[in-house]
Write a structure and sequence with these properties.
This protein is an alpha/beta fold. It contains eleven helices and nine strands. Strands 3-2-1-4-5-9-8 form a seven-stranded mixed sheet. A two-stranded antiparallel sheet has the order 6-7. It starts with 9 loop residues before the first helix and ends with a strand. The N terminus is likely disordered.
Length: 283
């Protein structure tokens, strides 16, 4: 698995994490869907075993709330420990940590051993060509009636906007861009299509931000505007982030090889239309 950030940048990620909001973190809408499914599982199984891809504190809190035995699988121990500070149910958690590559999941866990796998925006952190392999690996370790609960970004069907249009929107309604979800949707989602790689399904944060900065300079506007319209403000930690955003139909096609799609939902946030919530049952 290719490392997205240099090791020294994980500290910076931890610094900005409290200021990051949905869709980069699970929304209350997402958590409500997952909690309902977890309650349903607990009615059938009092001691389920769960696996979390990554260190997302909201997911870990949800599992800790119900004292579910949980394994955190992440490549970076600093993130696992650092994001623990943002958890509400630290004392209730029943966690263990495994530092390893997500693609090794079927080597780390026996077949049919897990009741639940959860993750927020983790498929997209792997190259598109590996999505099928990851889906198959997850299916192998899940029990027959096990579930995969996740949010994964997609390429929506809206037309792209130009940097000029985004800046004009900000000038007309600055308050609208105060919400993280709105900054994300317009400054990332509606601009990403200008540099979208249809073969690899990748978007490039550095290219998106560069387009915005060039337009600001072209219009001779205050350079501080970039910090008002770019989701991560002054931080450069996400500049080299490359992520796979396939069209929904392409992602679903892969998932259906191994899972029954019980539900696909979209948060009412502006950014929600690009980050669907999946409830998937093992076939």
């Amino acid at each position: 698995m290719k490392k997205i950030f240099k090791k020294k940048n994980w500290v910076e990620v931890l610094k900005i994490w409290p200021t990051v909001a949905p869709p980069c973190r699970p929304s209350p809408f997402d958590l409500k869907i997952w909690e309902k499914k977890i309650q349903e599982i607990l009615r059938q199984n009092k001691q389920p075993k769960a696996l979390v891809f990554g260190s997302t504190p909201e997911i870990r809190d949800l599992l800790a709330k119900y004292r579910i035995s949980t394994t955190i699988l992440d490549i970076n121990p600093g993130m696992v420990k650092g994001l623990l500070k943002l958890m509400k149910y630290k004392k209730q958690r029943k966690e263990k940590m495994i530092i390893n590559n997500w693609l090794n999941i079927n080597k780390l866990f026996p077949a049919d051993s897990l009741d639940l796998v959860l993750g927020h925006c983790f498929f997209n952190n792997l190259p598109w060509r590996l999505h099928l392999k990851l889906a198959k690996s997850i299916q192998q370790v899940l029990k027959k009636d096990g579930y995969l609960l996740m949010v994964s970004p997609i390429l929506d069907k809206e037309k792209p906007l130009s940097p000029k249009q985004i800046i004009l929107m900000y000038q007309q309604n600055p308050r609208y861009f105060e919400q993280f979800a709105n900054r994300w949707y317009f400054s990332v989602e509606r601009l990403k299509k200008l540099d979208y790689n249809k073969k690899t399904k990748q978007i490039f944060f550095s290219k998106i931000k560069t387009r915005l900065i060039k337009e600001i300079k072209k219009q001779k506007l205050p350079t501080e505007i970039i910090n008002k319209i770019w989701p991560f403000g002054v931080s450069d930690v996400m500049n080299n982030y490359v992520t796979a955003h396939p069209p929904l139909k392409d992602l679903v096609k892969i998932l259906k090889n191994y899972f029954k799609v019980e539900k696909i939902s979209f948060s009412p946030l502006s950014s929600g239309r690009c980050c669907p919530n999946f409830v998937l049952k093992n076939k």
